[in-house]
TrEMBL record:
UniProt keyword terms in alphabetical order: Lipoyl
Domain Lipoyl-binding: start-end pairs: 22-104
Gene: gcvH
Organism: Niabella drilacis (strain DSM 25811 / CCM 8410 / CCUG 62505 / LMG 26954 / E90)
Family as reported in the entry's similarity comment: Belongs to the GcvH family.
Cofactor(s) essential for the protein: (R)-lipoate
NCBIfam families on file: gcvH, PRK01202.1
Record's keyword annotation contains Endoplasmic reticulum: no
Record protein name field: Glycine cleavage system H protein
Amino acid sequence: MSYPETLRYTKDHEWISLDGDVATIGITDFAQRELGDIVYVEVETIGTSLKAGDVFGTVEAVKTVSDLFLPVDGEVTELNEALANSPELVNTDPYGEGWMIKMKVANPADVATLLEAAAYEALVG
């Protein structure tokens, strides 16, 4: 499994990439493998300000539904529209075309407090 070193990670298996105060968020390679074939991604929090740890949506796989947790405080601004017709992008390219949301981060410094790739890899073993 891969864990790009340019990203930060949560213990809940989300990844985050920061560009200024705009973050892109998705689930990790480990998470998508554990879930299996992704069939639906639901996010109904566009335009909503949330706190770190709040549920921003759900991901549905063939056998289960899992909550998606926001890594840092901020406002959800965009959903990856490609997932509506191709949710399997989360499986095939979790760090690229399979991203889930973009958000305006309240405090960009908070991203630095999340797990680095090596720490996340150690967490999932």
